[in-house]
């Protein structure tokens, strides 16, 4: 199971403040179990944002819905009508869900409301495409929903290496260059200025490496 926790509300506000309408999209999968991004948490986040922008006298509309999983095309495609009605999507899924939403809705900003912390084990056989490195410090809002930590073979944070050719990684011609994907994505969103932002070295103390890590939720009283 993937475990996540919500980003500070100040960071979320900064992400979405340029928009006038957003879809707060909850996920009924792992993040519901860990009390970070399910239906209840999505509704609470939407309410917090509406109250903040109301206080700031800024027009701001939210639509809230929760789908069974944001990592499954069947459910992701079911919210096409809602996505079409808003400027952007604020996903309360893990990093996999954020990126899968971004891949399925290439003309729409999809922002991460959570920091993905670590993953547990599901011991069923299958083939999976990795999308999130569980680094604990999500920057998908700066890279258009493409994770350079896991999609780049060298985990480069500030552009491609000199070995990429024709949009492919030097490791293998079957691997897309992550920074070509990021460039293309930001260009489609008219946000290429973000690619010029220099990222500091990764603070791996926030990642899952270096021993077991856990997120402790406060007791919920009914």
Automatic annotation (TrEMBL):
Residues 111-205 form the Methylene-tetrahydrofolate reductase C-terminal-like domain. InterPro entries: DUF5981. PANTHER family: 5,10-METHYLENETETRAHYDROFOLATE REDUCTASE (PTHR38755), METHYLENE-TETRAHYDROFOLATE REDUCTASE C-TERMINAL DOMAIN-CONTAINING PROTEIN (PTHR38755:SF1). This is Methylene-tetrahydrofolate reductase C-terminal-like domain-containing protein.
């Amino acid at each position: 199971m993937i475990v996540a926790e919500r980003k500070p509300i100040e960071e979320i506000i900064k992400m979405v403040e340029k928009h006038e309408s957003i879809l707060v999209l909850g996920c009924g999968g792992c993040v519901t179990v860990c009390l970070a991004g399910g239906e209840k948490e999505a509704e609470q986040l939407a309410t917090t944002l509406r109250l903040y922008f109301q206080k700031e006298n800024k027009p701001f509309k939210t639509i809230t819905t929760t789908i069974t999983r944001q990592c499954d095309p069947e459910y992701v495609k079911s919210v096409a009508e809602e996505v079409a009605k808003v400027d952007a999507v604020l996903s309360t899924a893990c990093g996999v869900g954020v990126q899968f939403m971004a891949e399925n809705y290439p003309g729409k900003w999809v922002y991460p409301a959570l920091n993905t912390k670590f993953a547990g084990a599901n011991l069923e056989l299958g083939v999976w495409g990795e999308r999130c490195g569980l680094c604990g410090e999500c920057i998908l809002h700066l890279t258009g929903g493409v994770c350079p930590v896991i999609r780049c073979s060298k985990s480069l944070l500030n552009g491609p290496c000199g070995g990429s050719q024709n949009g492919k990684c030097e490791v293998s011609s079957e691997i897309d260059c992550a920074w070509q994907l990021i460039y293309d994505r930001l260009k489609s969103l008219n946000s290429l200025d973000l690619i010029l932002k220099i990222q500091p070295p990764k603070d791996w103390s926030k990642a899952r490496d270096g021993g077991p890590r856990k997120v402790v939720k406060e007791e919920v009283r009914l």
